[in-house]
Design a protein that fits this description.
Blueprint lengths: L2 H9 L3 E4 L2 E4 L11 H13 L8 E8 L9 E10 L3 E10 L2 E11 L23 H7 L6 H8 L5 E4 L14 E7 L8 H11 L6 H4 L11 E5 L1 E6 L9 E11 L2 E10 L4 E13 L7
Antiparallel strand pairs: 1-2, 2-4, 3-6, 3-10, 4-5, 5-6, 7-8, 8-11, 9-13, 10-13, 11-12, 12-13
Helix pairs in contact: 2-5
Length: 291
C-alpha cells in the first residue's frame, strides 16, 4: 500500500473518546486549511459509529463554518437526535480550538425494497482509455509556479482520470461540465460505512471547480478566493472505493460570488450510487495577482 493511501486510512480510523465524542487527525491537502472532504467524511463516520450497522446512511447535509487548523486534530461531537423504527438521525459538530468549524446533519435507514429508477450514466470513455491526472500534472511540472509546485505534485491517495483534462495554470473558458473517473488505487478493506465516508471525502475533490470553468477561474489563481460553503449527498447503492467510479458534475448557475454544482456518481457497470450538491464561494479579489 502506498504511503498516501496508508495515511488516508489512518485518518478514517477515528478514536472514540466517549460515547458521543470522537477524535480524527487532520491534513492540509496542500492548502493552509483542512480539506473540506476530510472533515465531511470523518463527521459522517463519527455519526455512523453511534448507529447500528444494519442502518446505512442515506443522506447528509452540511455547512462549512470556519477554516480548519491542519496542525490540530478535530473533535466530533455527535448528537443522537432520534432513533425511530425505520430512520435514525444524527447531528455532528466538528470542533477545533473550542469552536465549531463544520456542522453535519445525517440520516440512516433500515434497508427496505421499494420503487427504483435512475438517470442513465453518460456515455464517456472508460478509465483504461484515459490518461491519469498524475501523468498530466507531471507533464506540466515546469509550468507550475514554484510556490504551488510541491503541493500540486504531491502523491495523492485518490487516482483521477479526467475525461477532458484541464490545465489549472493556463485555464481556458469551458462549459460548466466535468466528468472524471476516480478510485483509491490500492485495495481497501473497510466496512460499508467507512466506504461511504471515503466516498464523501472523494466527492469534494475539485467539485466546485465545475462552476468556475465558464469564468476561466481555478483554485490556484492568486486573485481567486474559493471555499466550499455547504455539501449534501444522497446514497442509493453499494460500491467499493477501490474500484472505478464516474463523477459527472454540472453547474446550473453562479451568482453573488457563489457557484452551485450538482453531481452524480456511478459504478463502472452504470449503477448510480450517489448524488451530490454543493455551493461554493468563488470570489475575485481586485488588485491581487492572477498567479
Amino acid at each position: 500500500m502506498r504511503e498516501s493511501v496508508r495515511e488516508l486510512m489512518q485518518r478514517f480510523d477515528l478514536e472514540r473518546l466517549e460515547d458521543n465524542l470522537f477524535r480524527g487527525q487532520s491534513e492540509a491537502n496542500g492548502q493552509q486549511s483542512i480539506f473540506g472532504g476530510l472533515v465531511a467524511g470523518q463527521a459522517l463516520l463519527a455519526a455512523s459509529m453511534t448507529v447500528p450497522e444494519e442502518r446505512p446512511v442515506h443522506s447528509l447535509h452540511a455547512y462549512f463554518l470556519r477554516p480548519g487548523d491542519f496542525r490540530q486534530p478535530i473533535i466530533y461531537d455527535v448528537d443522537r437526535i432520534r432513533d425511530g423504527k425505520s430512520f435514525t438521525t444524527r447531528r455532528v459538530n466538528a470542533i477545533q480550538h473550542g469552536r465549531p468549524i463544520f456542522s453535519l446533519s445525517t440520516s440512516f435507514q433500515v434497508e427496505e425494497e421499494g420503487a427504483r429508477h435512475q438517470a442513465t450514466m453518460p456515455d464517456v470513455p472508460y478509465p483504461d482509455e484515459l490518461g491519469s491526472d498524475e501523468q498530466g500534472r507531471l507533464k506540466m511540472a515546469e509550468q507550475i509556479p514554484e510556490k504551488f509546485r510541491a503541493a500540486y505534485l504531491r502523491e495523492r491517495p485518490v487516482e483521477f482520470r479526467p475525461v477532458t483534462p484541464r490545465n489549472s495554470f493556463t485555464p481556458e473558458t469551458r462549459e460548466p461540465l466535468k466528468q472524471i473517473w476516480f478510485r483509491v488505487p490500492d485495495p481497501v478493506q473497510a466496512d460499508r460505512m467507512t466506504q461511504r465516508a471515503l466516498l464523501t471525502y472523494c466527492s469534494d475533490f475539485g467539485f466546485m471547480g465545475t462552476a468556475m470553468q465558464p469564468h476561466g477561474m481555478t483554485f490556484w489563481q492568486g486573485n481567486v478566493q474559493c471555499a466550499s460553503l455547504d455539501h449534501a449527498m444522497w446514497f442509493y447503492d453499494d460500491f467499493r472505493i477501490d474500484e472505478w467510479l464516474l463523477y459527472h458534475c454540472e453547474s446550473p448557475g453562479a451568482a453573488g460570488a457563489r457557484g452551485l454544482t450538482f453531481g452524480a456518481i456511478y459504478r463502472e457497470d452504470g449503477t448510480l450510487v450517489a448524488s451530490v450538491a454543493q455551493e461554493g464561494l468563488m470570489r475575485l479579489r481586485p488588485g491581487a495577482e492572477p498567479v
